[in-house]
Amino acid sequence: MADPTEIYTSPHVLEYPYARSTGPIIGAFLTALRDGKIVGVKGSKGRVIVPPTEYDPDTAEETSGIVDVGPGGVIETWAWVDTPRFDAPLDTPFAWALIRLDGADTAMLHVVAAPTSDVVVTGTRVTAEFRPAAERVGSMHDLRCFVLEGK
Amino acid sequence: MAAEETAQGPVTMLSTPIRLDYNFTAGVAQSKSLRGYAEGRFIGQRCPVCKKVYVPSRGSCPKDAVATTEEVVLPNTATVTTFCVVNVPFAGQSIEIPYITASILLDGADITFMGLIQGIAPEDVEMGLRVEAVWVPKEELGPTLASVKYFQPTGEPNREVSTFAEHL
Amino acid sequence: MSTPPPRQGTRPVAIVACAQSKSERRIEQANEVELLMPVVTEVYANAGMTKDDVDFICSGSTDYLIGGPFSFVTALDAVGVWPPKAESHVEMDGAWALYEAWVTLQEEGKDVALVYGFGKSSLGDLSRILALQLDPYTMAPMWPDQVSLAALQAQAMIDQGLATEEDFARIASRARHNALSNPNAQVANEKTMEELMKDDYAVAPLRRHTLPPLSDGAAAIILVAGDRAYDVVDRPAWITGIDHRVDAHAFGARNLAESRSTTKAAENAGVSAGPVDIAELHAPFAHQEILLRRAMGLNESTVINPSGGPLAANPLMAGGLIRFIEAANRIMDGSANRAVAHATSGPVLQQNLVAVLEGAS
Q1: b/e per residue, C222-249, with b = 16+ CB within 10 A?
Q2: CB distance A26–C138 less than 8 Å?
Q3: CB contact under 8 A, C67 and B30
Q4: ipTM for the predicted complex
């Protein structure tokens, strides 16, 4: 006989193999990443939005005009991760950061690889480190991480 | 590799697979029903207000919004309230088509659940067909509705639709 | 009785009864229906009502917590929807379900609404689930976790001179002290700011104590329109102002150290139109309390989160509705005349709902 008080529990896995249409604006951004570059789009009053969106997040006006930005930029804010989660982009200690790329007016979320936490501070200059061309497919992961500029 | 094949054209699609891991819990009422399957019997619960019997029960009467605490052991015999003939193959299908999937109303229950009908030609199935549960061998019983292999005809006369119309 | 006039709408609507479960890290013995059922039963009892008195039902929950589609439909088994009821659901915190119910009660002939929210954070990996509310092209594929995103916000506040790590610890210390008198709280203790500052970082600059607990829980409220509210309770908590606003989803395009949506919602709700005795702020991370307080212009005379707030108990999808309950309870028991309830949803305070609750003079 089964235990009359047992509460049954069970592992349960949900998986979705989503494939998303990029549309022309995000498509241009991902195409650029695959080609080892970073681009943004011009929004209202000419401000450059990175990653690009089809609309200006503040005014909802349509954006137009893809422009090159980076690969260097400035850390706007950061969060230091000593123990990366299993699904983190890097498996050694790193910082999540909002990075304002040169030529951009908004900040992009990505990771900064650094030897120790004390060298990652707001205002620090960083530069993009791409994966080798053969590994790039048109995704945020084409950018392996950002590293401190000149290091 | 895919990247080289598409290197010249613009990126138009992005693959974003997601995987989420859960530890599902059945709670008290559903665990009772699941335990029943492991023991080769149907366990339901009765509403203290309207007296209706739910099998399986999630622990409440959806009509009266009260907890169902009285346990009811139900028999293996049941009536087919309605059914369909499955002719469409789909991924993971384990039974040869065509086959019958039916709404099963256990004797003494007030709610139906889906069950497989075997031991009868699809063209002979009618609403009101009397059936009984065939369980997997004892050593294969587990806390899952898969413990019920299928339902097969008992040979009794069909029930009049008017006797179970409320459960359609 | 002089019912305070509402700033929005034409019919005054009040919270007249509340119920909530005790928040726990993992309630294994209850499925969602069993979690919700005692709370719904209790709120009906507190209102002296049955399901037949209710004209409209609205709930807030998210299927990703459970890992099954349309779980809100299953949950309806706990509330009684026969004969057929007018019912709706939002994939938002229950506070937004309250907003929809408030709108619905503006219609003559709809006088009573049941609102509830429920969530079990224990079934899955909450950080992974919450990553799915981010931009699916440029953020979610990197699976940033909610603690790291909150830490980005906290660091922005530090950099802009708005707060220090000691401020965060002081808030956590006070929240857990207040939670000692809240029987539904999950984390309650006496620890000084100095003791808390010895905690490790979860993700710097956020130490462990600045994070909300992972909670399973449910909450329910009965709303009544017009003078019928006085039939239920002597001192209904009248919703005299309510509004919700949203900031840009792309949070790299906004200043994380401020919340313009909260400011706008607070203005429209009329927060500054009178003294605020207490405010229940849905600030899951300690630094967000400072941010929200600034955004609403609350001064030192307002008692913040007397219940302990989300740092003491934070069931996802019910945590905002619980702020309404805690604020309304203090109006109904006469310990406050004017209270603010706030709820948030979305990444790093993207969406914010602010309401002013008042007792009749």
Answers
A1: bbbbeeebbebbebbbbbbbbbbbebbb
A2: yes
A3: no
A4: 0.96
